[in-house]
Amino acid sequence: xxxxxxxxxxxxxxxxxxxxxxxxxxxxxxxxxxxxxxxxxxxxxxxxxxxxxxxxxxxxxxxxxxxxxxxxxxxxxxxxxxxxxxxxxxxxxxxxxxxxxxxxxxxxxxxxxxxxxxxxxxxxxxxxxxxxxxxxxxxxxxxxxxxxxxxxxxxxxxxxxxxxxxxxxxxxxxxxxxxxxxxxxxxxxxxxxxxxxxxxxxxxxxxxxxxxxxxxxxxxxxxxxxxxxxxxxxxxxxxxxxxxxxxxxxxxxxxxxxxxxxxxxxxxxxxxxxxxxxxxxxxxxxxxxxxxxxxxxxxxxxxxxxxxxxxxxxxxxxxxxxx
Length: 323
What we know:
- The protein is of the alpha/beta class.
- The chain has helices spanning 20-31, 50-60, 75-80, 82-102, 140-160, 186-199, 220-233, 250-260, 285-291, 299-315, and strands spanning 11-15, 36-40, 64-67, 107-111, 165-169, 171-173, 204-208, 214-215, 217-219, 240-242, 248-249, 266-270.
- Helix content is 41%, strand content 15%.
């Protein structure tokens, strides 16, 4: 890190501030003593409407935007809503980047996804491999929309002198994620299923796929730290991977969560359901080189924190549809 690009006195606008990642980024900005942070919620502005986006940026006059707003979900949600996932993610990003350029806002931190990589990308996934093939089909519309936005950021850097940075986190997990069996990612989905089985004295849990595919997981607090560090210090436009560089099979993950939750029943794998990408594991050296970031939360520690948060949320009634 050679210099501070974004100062603590600058105005930072965070889209999707009430979302899973957004709440943790807002907390990280507070921890790092940023003085002027604007958390943009859906109720504050419809990001699908360019006029509303332009008016919001004019009113707020931010120095930098962290664009987190989007529509996300697991394999099932992507399979059921491909058009919505493509259109809404693409349209929100198009509006934010172009309106920022028109408002003379020089810096956007654009959040991509590991889903942008092709199905058979060599492991570990290196940023140079991003365009080597079509994304895994179960989440291709989402991944292609995010690819397009990363290219847009680079193009606006090249033509208009912006200083946009694109980051590509691997699968995130942690407290405050959406725990809903219809659209959750894999870790909250597994926690929900084991919790429901325990509550209902079920002797078995049926899980999607073979369990033999692998995924890499990044604790959400680590990701929030990376985003704020990249915003402050990163001079390279990216795209830059954010991850741990470690993968785990879904079968081993399920056994680990079952053990942590004291579920002792049988786990049955429904191989008629899709597995998704065979492997996901990122090469993560650029984040260390460009802004001195490396993931630090041990995976089991993150799982325990996530399960404890979930169980407390169920007990106090803030999660009602967990089974």
